[in-house]
What does this fold into?
Amino acid sequence: MQMTFCYFRNDLKLRFSSRARILSDTIRFFSAIIFPFVIWYSFMHEDASAYLYLRRIVLNYLFFSLFSHTHYEYIAQVIVNGRLNIKLLKPYSLRHTFFSYYAGNFLARFLFLGLPIIVFIYFFYTIDISVLHTQLLSVGLFLFFLLFIFALGFFFGMTIAGFAFWVGDIWAVRLFLAAGSGAVAGTWFPFEGTLHFMSFSPFGVVADGVTRFLETSFFEQQLYCGMACVWVLVFFLASVVLWGNGLKKYEAEGG
It folds into this structure.
């Protein structure tokens, strides 16, 4: 826990390190929200339909920003730069170290995005909040769902970073995740009709899946929770296999 708060404090210091950093983060945040407004209003003639789509897209973007997988870059750099040797000599496990980094960064993101998400839902999104307040089963399922999403982000990052044992700098993966992951998470366009299945993908479930969870029936909520659990298991096993073989290769080559 102490290590997590150390990473949390360091992340806050980095975010407030300079006015230019604060300004660039603010511009990037609002530009990502304004972009779909410009696109959808230019293509759609009915303002009511465009509003419904944009409302979902913005909330998807907020959830995706909160649960985004950014720690894989740090972990991959630890492998490539040789700092993994130092981590291996310490008395605690690698997974504990990287999880502390992930949790610390998540707390920093939650500090900035938690309130905007609540405010946006309250003022701009029509959700039957009474369902979550009156049905304890739905509330409990929603908390488990968020826990699965949190775990999915960690194991997904561990899996992606594990490829650094073989390919070195994972710049191609980093480029895709930075440029295109939002599109397959529902932050560019809504997953309607035949695209609805994308809400159950590893990217879609952490954004559009969370949004839909708040507005669907209890049966579909169970589907989203179950799908998130499946992806957690998939990426957990993938990370175990990649890191198990990767560490053997790393130690055989002398780090």
About this structure: The chain has twelve helices and no strands. The first helix runs from residue 2 to 15. The two ends are 29 Å apart (CA to CA).
